[in-house]
Specification:
This protein has one domain. It is 53% helix and 0% strand.
């Protein structure tokens, strides 16, 4: 199997990358409605805006629903009003808010880091699985932590340590893939508030979603 940076390069340089982004975010000539996920990072001003960056809000819980996942009511209430929310706020306060994954230290994404600990804490809650936990954290730290689900995992060949492997891929060849993602964002007419990681996620998801849903995965 190709290294992750080569697999990503093949997909991010494909002719369909820009059309997929335009279709998803509704920036192309088509009159089709954008996907609901196009509001994920922008709903209520974003989950990383200074006033709310270190706490989970009701807006964040609605935002993850635009990506077809849901936080169960009991966990949602605990995040908003209980000890779980207090614990998550403490962890979020130790996760960089203004750092791109490509520029972050590996320690910020390694086992034992506040980010990984926050993911593990969320996954320990009844009804919250790894996809939902990752999407909630991506809402809070869109530049540092990626949206990651079964479709993207499948198209990338199920990497062993996705955060660290993706960081390494983005940094390879003098940050070639990071520059490619920035160029794709511009070519698709997207605002700078759509992170490079989100551009990557959307291109990969749009590329593979139909085959994945129809069980055509290799």
């Amino acid at each position: 199997m190709k290294p992750l940076n080569h697999r990503l390069s093949d997909l991010l340089t494909s002719p369909g990358a820009v059309p997929h982004l335009r279709r998803y975010f509704g920036t192309g000539p088509s009159h089709d409605a954008p996907f609901t996920g196009s509001r994920f990072e922008h709903l209520a001003g974003g989950g990383d805006r200074p006033a709310v960056a270190n706490r989970v809000t009701a807006d964040d819980l609605i935002a993850v629903q635009t990506l077809s996942v849901r936080v169960p009511a009991a966990a949602a209430l605990d995040l908003l009003e209980g000890e779980l929310g207090t614990h998550m706020s403490e962890l979020l306060s130790r996760i960089p808010c203004d750092e791109d994954m490509a520029g972050a230290d590996a320690a910020d994404l390694a086992p034992g880091s506040p980010a990984v600990t926050a993911w593990e804490v969320l996954c320990d809650q009844p009804g919250i699985r790894w996809v939902t936990a990752g999407k909630l954290l991506a809402r809070k730290r869109p530049r540092l932590l990626p949206v990651y689900d079964q479709v993207v995992r499948c198209v990338l060949g199920r990497p062993q340590s996705f955060w660290l492997d993706l960081r390494a891929a983005l940094r390879a060849d003098d940050h070639a893939l990071q520059r490619r993602l920035t160029a794709l964002r511009q070519d698709a007419g997207l605002p700078g508030t759509v992170s490079a990681l989100r551009v990557c996620d959307v291109v990969l998801w749009m590329h593979h979603r139909v085959d994945h849903q129809r069980g055509r995965c290799s």
